Each structure stands twice: as structure tokens, then as C-alpha cells.
């Protein structure tokens, strides 16, 4: 019986990953339909009442339990709060973006770059860090690349350097507690995203400092290559806004909105309140302050509803997947099988191994497949060696679709970056992957030193 459940579990994970990566099914559909089918089959192998009737299988009783697995504490119940957090975080940052909160910051950074390649690379990285506060790679690339590509061209700097600086900064910022990797990893292990993230905060800070150092090295290399400080600087063209977008700007509320952002982040990291509650409250404050009119409020929600609902639907579908996998016992049996294959001498190093391979794993697994399909199995396997799931999850988010997402061919945002910068995927990966992997290793080392990842 147990071997059959392990086989079904592996079939579930492999089928889901294959269908998502080959784009035969969307992540939402794959995360629901595959475990429902294999869970139905598993109902024929689960001992219904092991205490009173060991060895007896009642298919109908097991099948009826699938609904409870999906909606229970290990299923949708485990992701509900995270879904609420993600919904309101998108609305919160979306409203502040619509209000033009980030535009003066962008202008201030670009105006101080001058014609020194070192300052330009560092400024590019700082700009990307700030813009990526909303966790959207597409938004970061759309805001950062178009105005700067003209400056890089004017100075004779390589566009691959621009893409690398933006990618490094966005990659590290993607580890923030409202970012995709952290939310997914916390969801997979049924953990509070903020509590899960806080131990790696020193590592993220070290990673951001490392980004600036790497940007300095890239800028110095560009300065040496082109000689001196480069050619004359042409005006950095700011994105032109439509009349509708201009009507949404609230320049007189800039400092109030900045205070809102800082207060939200401070409360998120240190208040102890649930992230969902914090973003709900600050979404309301941002809305009331910037767009108090009811019609304006509805319009802003409609404008950001698509991206919010897309991510939330995947989260709830992941709840279906994890609920069935855990409830039927498939994930436990898979972990037992994998544990039997791993030498005991390597067991304690499991988090380090995952951390080292997490960045290049982004080239093989999309985020939903890895965090909802692979990571739970790895977590159960690690538990067999006495390793906490949180340690494994923190090691994974240091590279898997964080520093790795801007170079992965599995993320649409990568191709948006390539298109805006006008560069080839191969050239971009050749230039960026070594720096991105180095960032992951630095953050992993800091995590090991601070105890965020224990072995």
C-alpha cells in the first residue's frame, strides 16, 4: 500500500511539472486536476481505519475525504491568509504606483548618475531595488530599462550590463516576504510568511550590499573598456504618460505616500500582526488618501484585479494540491522513499545542497512546480534527517526564482527584460548567471553564519 502511494505521489509531481513546463496546462489547472485524479486513485490504497480494521480499504470513504483534504487546514485553509496578503499587497503598491509615488525617486536617481559608468551601474541597481518593492519583475523592467537604455548607448556601455544590474537587484528584492518565492515556500510548509522571512533579513541586506558591490565592479569594467567616463550624455527620456495616467498622479501626496510605504514595511517586519491584516489596513489608508472618490477606488481595484486574481488563484490551487498530497499520505511515503536513498552522512548538509543549487534550479523548474511540487517532498525528506522544513525553505528562496528568475527561460518577465534591453538570452545568461549565483552563495553563507539556515 505504502509503495503504491509513493509511486502515485511521484506520478503526481512529475505529471504536474511536465504539464506546467510544457505549457499544456496552466499552473492553476494542473495544481487542481492532477492531484484530484491521483487522489481518487489513491483512495483505493489507503487503509481506512488502521486502528480498528488494519489492512481494510474502503474506497468510497476515502474518496469522500478528498473534499476535506482540499478545504482543510493542510489545504486551502493553509493558504487563505497568504492569498489575502498577496491580494492587498498588489492593490497597495499598485495604488501608490498609480499615484506617481516612485516617479520623483526615479528622476532623482537618474539625474545624479552623470556620465561615470560606475555611478550609472550603482544607480541602476538602486533604482531597480526601489521599483521592485511591489514584487513585480515586469513592472521593474518596464520602469527601469527604457529610460536607461539610451544613457547606456550614449556612453558606449553594454546593454547586457544594464540588464545584469537590474536583474541582480530585482532578484534579491524578490525574496521580500510579499515576493513570490517567499510566499510560495511559506505556503508549501504552512508557515507565516513574515516569521519565515525574518531570519533571512540579514542575508537579504548582505545580498543588496553585494549587488551594489557587483554593480561597482561592472561599472569599473565598463569604464576601463570604453576609456575615461564615456561619451556625451543625452537626456534620459522619462516614460510619457497618457492623459488618464496623468490624472491619477498625486504629487502633493508624495511624502505622505512615502511614509505609508515605510510604515507598512516596518509594521510587516516588526509589529507582530499578520501580513494580511497589515496590507488590508494600509491598502485602505492608501486608497482613502489618494483616491477617496468611490468611483476612483473601484477603477483602481479593476486596474490591478487581473494580476491579483491570477496569483491568488494559483495559491488556492496550491492549497488543493498540498491538501490532497498530505491528506492521502502520498507526500509522506515519497519522503520515506527518498530518505532511504540519501546517505546519512549527507543528510545534515541537505539545506546547504539545496541552497547551492537553488539558483540554477530556476533554469529547470518554474516557481509553482518547484515550490508546490518539489519543495514539499524535499521538506519531508529533510525531516527524516532531523532538519526543519523552514531551514530548507529559506535555503531555497535564496536562489530559486529570486536571483534566478531574471535569467530563467521559464518566466515571461525574463523575455520582457531581453526585449526592452534589445539583447539575446544567451548573452544575458552568460553575463548575469555568474553574478546571480555568487549573490545566492553569499546570502547562503550569511544565513549559515546567522542561523537562518541551520545544519
Q: What is the number of beta strands? A: 0
Order of helices and strands: HHHHHHHHHHHHHHHHHHHHHHH
What is the count of DSSP helices, taking H or I runs of 4+ residues?
23
Shape: globular
Assembly form of the protein: single chain
Question: Main beta sheet: strand number and arrangement?
Answer: none
**Total domains:** 1
- Catalogue the unreliable spans: 229-235
Residue fraction in strands:
under 5%
Rounded mean pLDDT is: 83
Give me the secondary-structure category. mainly alpha
Computed CA radius of gyration, to the nearest angstrom: 23 Å
> Share of helix among residues?
over 70%
> Distance between the terminal alpha carbons, to the nearest Å?
33 Å
Provide a brief overview of the structure.
This protein is an all-alpha fold and about 450 residues long. Helices cover about 75% and strands about 0% of the residues.
Your description of this structure?
The protein has one domain. It is globular. Helix 19 (350-361) runs antiparallel to helix 23. It has 455 residues and is an all-alpha fold. It is built from 23 helices and no strands.
Task: Please name the defining characteristics of this protein.
single chain, 455 residues, mainly alpha, 23 helices, 0% strand, globular
Question: Could you outline the blueprint of secondary structure elements for this entry?
Answer:
Layout lengths: L1 H20 L5 H16 L16 H6 L1 H6 L4 H23 L4 H9 L5 H15 L5 H19 L3 H15 L6 H9 L4 H5 L3 H26 L16 H6 L5 H17 L4 H16 L3 H34 L2 H12 L2 H4 L2 H12 L5 H17 L5 H9 L14 H10 L3 H26 L5
Helix pairs in contact: 1-2, 1-17, 1-20, 2-16, 5-15, 5-16, 6-7, 7-8, 7-9, 7-12, 8-9, 8-22, 9-12, 9-23, 10-20, 10-21, 12-23, 14-15, 16-20, 17-20, 19-21, 19-23, 20-21
